[in-house]
Amino acid sequence: MSIHILTGHLGSGKTEVAINLAVYLAERARCSPASDAAVALLDIDVVNPYFAAREARSFLESQGILVAAPSLKTTTAALPTLPSEVYQLLHRKDLQIIIDVGGDSTGARLLKSLQKYLEGEPLQVYGVVNTKRPSTARKQDILAYLRDIRHASGLAHTALIHNTHLLDETSPEDVHEGQTILENVALECGLPIAFTAVMKELALQFRINNAILAMERHIKPPFVVNSH
C-alpha cells in the first residue's frame, strides 16, 4: 500500500488534481509489469461538497479506479460522516490510495480519525497551492496555511503541489508567477515541489525544474453546471 494525501484551501483545485493523479497512477500501473497495485480515490472532503470526486465517479471507475465518496446529503448534514467504503479500502494492502481532504483545519481534523489506518504505511502528504486565491497568494500566507493543516491533522506535509490557476482564464504568466512564489515557499520550509499541475493545453509551454502533471478537467464549477 502507498497513500497520497492531498490538502488544499478552497479554490486550490485539489480535487481536480486528485482525480488526475489517480488517472496517472492507474495508467502507470497498467504500463508497468512489476506493478499490479490498483488505485483508489477516497474523497473525505466534507468542507466543500460541491467540488467532489463523486462527480467523476463514472469516469474514474471506467479507468479501473475505486472510488469512495460521501453523498451530498451526508456532507451537508450537521454532523458529516464518512462512508464505510473509506474504512474498507484503507484495510486493503494491495492499493495505491489517494485521499482528498477537506480544505481547512476542520476538514483536516478528519485525518485524525483515520490515523490508525495510516500509521506505518508509506505516506505522502501534499499541500496543493493556488497562488491566485487570496488566502494563499503570498509566501507567508502559504506557510501559515501549511502550519494550520499540520496542527489540525497531526501530519506534516512531505511535499508541495503547485496548481496556480484561474480556471479557463489561466495564462502561462499566471503559472510562471505562481511557480516563483512556490519555489520560495519550498526553500523556506524545506519541502520539495512534487509537481506542477496544469491543463494539457498549457503543459507544453513550460520548462521548470520539477515534474509536470498535465491535466484534463473533470469537475465543473457549480455556476457552470447551473447555467445549463
TrEMBL record:
<dbReference type="GO" id="GO:0005524">
    <property type="term" value="F:ATP binding"/>
</dbReference>
<protein>
    <submittedName>
        <fullName>ATP-binding protein</fullName>
    </submittedName>
</protein>
<dbReference type="InterPro" id="IPR027417">
    <property type="entry name" value="P-loop_NTPase"/>
</dbReference>
<keyword id="KW-0547">Nucleotide-binding</keyword>
<keyword id="KW-0067">ATP-binding</keyword>
